[in-house]
Design brief:
The protein has a single domain, classed as Factor Xa Inhibitor. It is 37% helix and 12% strand. It contains 3 helices and 3 strands, in the order αββαβα.
């Protein structure tokens, strides 16, 4: 049986944690940072966790997750 292919776009955006949740990097921290307050930027630094429904979709694109 051949290897299953990974959707590379999903592999670059998501990773599966040890407990099986799907983590992603939050958007909005690349540029135009002067108008964003420190609290907002600090929150954007931390990883986000997908909801169960979205995680199921993401895992379907990552066959070995």
């Amino acid at each position: 049986m051949p290897k299953m292919k990974t959707r590379k776009s999903a592999a670059k955006r998501f990773r599966v944690t040890g407990s099986g949740k799907v983590a992603y990097k939050k958007m909005g921290l690349r540029h135009i940072l002067t108008k964003k307050n420190s609290k907002r930027k600090m929150d954007l630094r931390h990883k986000g966790i997908l909801s169960d429904v979205e995680a199921k979709r993401a895992k379907s694109m990552l066959p070995y997750a």
